[in-house]
Design a protein that fits this description.
The chain crosses the membrane at residues 24-41, 53-70, 75-94. The chain is an all-alpha fold and 97 residues long. It is 76% helix and 0% strand. The chain contains five helices and no strands.
Length: 97
Amino acid sequence: MKNELLDDLNLAPKPKKTKPNKKVMIVGFLMSFNLFAYQILTERTSETELVLGSYFWMPFLALGLFGGIYPPKKAILLSVLTVPIIFIFYGVIWPSL
């Protein structure tokens, strides 16, 4: 009887752990660098334009950073979540400093 209970617990398959993907990290860094370089080369360097541009290149920078630490799905989710964080920072925190 006791062995049957233990066997029931072992029947459930364990979820696979996905590993970080270096390709995601490299693509994130390259896209971030390209978007930031494009912004600088087109002379969009005023404070307002840098803030607006960070909504585009900052998530890719986060993807590059998180891509080497977390699995691809989690890294992409965390990089997408940087957009509201940037909004809160520039909209609430920065003006109060």
